[in-house]
Amino acid sequence: MLDADPCDPALLPPDGEPEHDAAAGGSKTDETSPGAFHTLMAMACEVPVVLSLRIPLLIGETAIFSPVDREETRLSLSEKSGAFFEGVAAAQAATLAAFLALQAETISGRLFPWHMFEAADMIFAAGLAPSLTRLQANGDRLSAQG
Question: Where is this region: Disordered (predicted)?
């Protein structure tokens, strides 16, 4: 007999989709890394918050004559450039990983068309991840100041 109830919601996959069996040619994406859509939606929610907290600080810094004393302006520029370069490096690493995975699946004969979409989603999400991390950190820092 079964020890667990087969209708128990805890036994169902969290996203409502059936789990793919790797031996049967399916793939299972990493549950810890959000996809590109999740990243874009999180950025769409965080950007207005950060802008509403940062714009008054930037306007307040226009009265400061010395460019050395404009801390928020300097932070906003350096964080964006750092996130851009980290995103480029992460996208390149994800592209290499996706290329090797797709090549192995092609050689073994288990390549399905949707794997290419998953690979593109993984690359796009990896490129946006540093920007999202910086955006959330800015939101936390700026909300703690105000």
Answer: 1-31
